[in-house]
From TrEMBL:
UniProt name for this protein: Hydrolase
Keywords of this entry: Hydrolase
Gene Ontology MF terms: hydrolase activity
PANTHER family found in the cross-reference section: TESTIS DEVELOPMENT PROTEIN PRTD, TESTIS-EXPRESSED PROTEIN 30
Pfam families in the record: Abhydrolase_11
Alphabetized Gene3D superfamilies for the sequence: alpha/beta hydrolase (3.40.50.1820)
Domain KANL3/Tex30 alpha/beta hydrolase-like: 26-205
Superkingdom in the source lineage: Bacteria
Amino acid sequence: MTTEIVGTDAGDARVTWHPAPKPRLVLAVSHGAGGGIEARDLRALAEVLPAHGVTVARVEQPWRVAGKKVAPAPKTLDVGWRGLWPALAAPGLPVISGGRSAGARVACRTAVELGAHAVLALSFPLHPPGKPEKSRAEELLGSGVPTLVVQGGNDPFGKPEEFPAGDFEMVEVPYGDHGFTVPKRAPLGQDEAVAIVTDGVVKWVGSLG
């Protein structure tokens, strides 16, 4: 594991690399507006994917590196992601653009422009909680590349059944909330829930050309 500071027009970002022994892809994955790269799903992907030929780059966006507690506007998030891309593409491998929540939106919005190989959208915030009329489905449907959505069955930002039909794949984490936390009364444990995430992503990356 190595850490790299990358300057962007939105400020310095920090990339934590988890190299695969025999890499064929890079997964660049960023956090949401309310958390960091220590989110359980991002940690789990960094632990599991390198054995499957995927180097994982966990990306801390400039606003987090600067110590701010509130994410900037979407346009500023996109500026930071664009600035990071040359470093993410430096290994010379196809790059899967990924993120959780707000980071997933960034990945979808910029995928075609940056030449992403695919998009991994963890806990895509389809709408603000309680406001299904404010849909962000166009961002997801407009990614323009193979896209996998991993969504909690009880995500207040959009349950799997709320998503429109479209050219993307979906893995549901039963009973999971926006952070894939499952209630103690659920018939599956927290480790099982995280395994659904990693197993689904491993299967999907294996299907990518």
